[in-house]
Design goal:
By secondary structure, this protein is α/β, with parallel strands linked by helices. It is built from 20 helices and 14 strands. The strands form four sheets. The protein has a five-stranded parallel sheet, sandwiched between helices. Helix 5 links the parallel strand 4 and strand 5. Helix 18 crosses helix 20. It is globular, with a radius of gyration of 27 Å. The two termini are 48 Å apart.
Length: 471
């Protein structure tokens, strides 16, 4: 039986969770403070605990202090944070300090149960991998699966301001959608299969293509990317296959094409759905024969490439309409990866936003630390139709506009103003107004001032609307 420790100072809520989880087959203990949780974890129960589910705001210490204490004492049980909607940014800090996940209150039981199962399963897989590694020569000695030092932190300083860190260029996220995405990447990367990456603009398709290359046997060979949407039809053959000097007007020197540049490595064709039908024929021939002939050349060049393509277009529909060759579609689509939208990646939104703040700080020489609670709430309420690219642009503008340490709703609203079209919650007809106001009030637990900020209107307007519409 798996063991869970609940740390929650709301006795009624904690008891309800304990009863519900016991019905789901878990052995559950609960504590109402960090001190009480530490005592339980130092008793025999601590050696059996498989997961800690903790509130952030506790009577004696912040919940992050408990997480730090666990790391200091090599307790590796996954830690899930419970937080109010407006405090979700604090949950992100917990995840940066080693928490497995977070869940917003009011808690949805099905979502919580899935997060618990995912966290325990992932921790077990990591523990097994560590145990296997420990059997190799000169490997570090492994601790018990629940007691090890991997990814430990001192707890004395849980969060350094973003501006003082050198930010990684990319992160992959911790949500279930992200884990599923990169499990497929790891599965297909070592194979020679052609991969088609499908997804909306701004979801990070080129990064995934790079990861496939980096995890493949061709990692030490070239990775060459070509944007098919930016190639004029009359020079497409030259871009793909190169040309010889004098082949056409303006061909003053020999040029190597994309296939030759990527020879031995990976060729990434972005927006492959934009290729003209004539170019599709030439591309198919090259893929079938594994040989190319530069424009104006007389000799063929053997090529060996791994092909990865991406598009935001429905290629099956394009095949049915005769705009894309069916034989080419099957040639490039030996394995398909679907990119999740940013709105489908849950808490990853704040991880990406934090990364983009750090990038903006480095680029603009700023020292912005994050979002205040109202701005975090506004950030979470937007649907982000432009995905990661939109989020990056908004965050960079917000960092530029911010004069303090935290981005507020003032700067964030200004930064979002250029692109917020579907989720600004502008008020139009009465039925739409009513539903959007009700939604905003639900998201803010009835706080009319916060609801007004979500809707992009002033408080006087929303008060008048609530009275007029009888909400």
């Amino acid at each position: 039986m798996q063991h869970i420790l609940i740390v929650e100072d709301d006795i009624a809520f904690g008891t309800m969770l304990q009863t519900w989880l016991r019905r789901k087959g878990f052995e559950v203990e609960k504590a109402t403070s960090v001190g009480a949780a530490v005592k339980l974890l130092t008793e025999p129960f601590g050696k059996e605990v498989d997961l800690v589910l903790s509130d952030l705001r506790l009577p004696d210490h912040d919940g992050l202090r408990l997480l730090a204490w666990m790391h200091e004492h090599d307790i590796n049980a996954p830690f899930i944070v419970m937080t109010n909607y407006a405090e979700v940014q604090n949950a992100v800090l917990a995840m940066k300090s080693g928490a497995a996940d977070y869940i917003a209150k009011p808690v949805q039981p099905d979502i919580l149960l899935q997060k618990i199962k995912d966290a325990i399963e992932q921790n077990a897989q990591q523990s097994n991998a560590t145990t296997q590694n420990s059997t190799t020569p000169n490997a570090p000695t492994a601790h018990n699966s629940k007691f090890k030092t991997q990814n430990s932190c001192s707890g004395k300083r849980l969060y350094e301001p973003s501006a003082k860190l050198t930010a990684p260029r990319h992160i992959e996220g911790k949500s279930e959608a992200s884990r599923q995405l990169y499990s497929y990447v790891e599965l297909v990367a070592p194979t020679p299969m052609s991969v088609l990456i499908l997804g909306a603009s701004g979801t990070g398709k080129e990064y995934v293509a790079h990861r496939i290359h980096d995890l493949s046997a061709r990692a030490d060979k070239p990775f060459f990317a070509l944007d098919c949407g930016a190639i004029p039809r009359d020079v497409a053959a030259s871009e793909f296959f190169g040309h010889k000097k004098g082949a056409f007007t303006g061909a003053d020197t020999d040029k190597r094409g994309a296939f030759e540049m990527a020879n031995g490595g990976t060729l990434f064709l972005d927006e492959v759905g934009n290729l003209s039908y004539e170019v599709q024929v030439q591309l198919l021939r090259a893929l079938q024969e594994r040989r190319i002939r530069p424009v104006g050349g007389t000799q063929e060049i053997p090529i060996d490439i791994r092909l990865v393509c991406a598009t935001n277009e429905n290629l099956e529909e394009a095949v049915g309409e005769g705009r894309f060759r069916e034989d080419l579609y099957h040639r490039i689509n030996e394995f398909t990866i679907y990119m999740p939208k940013l709105s489908e990646r849950g808490s990853d939104l704040f991880l990406f936003a934090d990364l983009f703040i750090r990038h903006a700080n480095e680029e603009l020489n700023r020292t912005v630390e994050g979002f205040d609670s109202d701005a975090a709430e506004l950030l979470a309420s937007h649907s982000w139709p432009g995905n990661l690219r939109e989020l990056n642009n908004v965050v960079k503008r917000a960092v530029l506009l911010t004069r303090g340490n935290k981005i507020t709703t003032t700067e964030l609203t200004q930064a979002m103003g250029q692109i917020r079209t579907d989720n600004v919650l502008q008020l139009h007809d009465e039925d739409t107004e009513r539903q959007r106001i009700i939604t905003a009030l639900q998201q803010t637990n009835g706080n009319k001032a916060k609801a007004a900020r979500l809707l992009g209107v002033d408080r006087k307007t929303i008060y008048n609307k609530i009275e007029k519409l009888g909400i």
